[in-house]
Amino acid sequence: MIEAHGLTKRYGSKTAVDGISFQVRPGRVTGFLGPNGAGKSTTMRMIVGLDKPTAGTVTVQGKPFARSAAPLTEVGALLEAKAVHPGRSARQHLRALAATHGIGNKRVDEVIELAGLAAVAKKRVKGFSLGMGQRLGIAAALIGDPHTLILDEPVNGLDPEGVAWVRGLAKHLASEGRTIFLSSHLMSEVAVTADDLLVIGRGKIVAAGPVSEIVSRATTTTVRVRSPHASELAAALSGPQATVDAIEPGLIEVHGPSAAEIGELAAASRYVLHELTPVSGSLEQAYMALTSDAVEYRSGVEGAPAPAVAPAGPATTETPR
Ligand SMILES: Nc1ncnc2c1ncn2[C@@H]1O[C@H](COP(=O)(O)OP(=O)(O)OP(=O)(O)O)[C@@H](O)[C@H]1O
Question: What is the whole-number distance in angstroms between the Cα of residue 39 and the centre of ligand 1?
Answer without folding.
Answer: 6
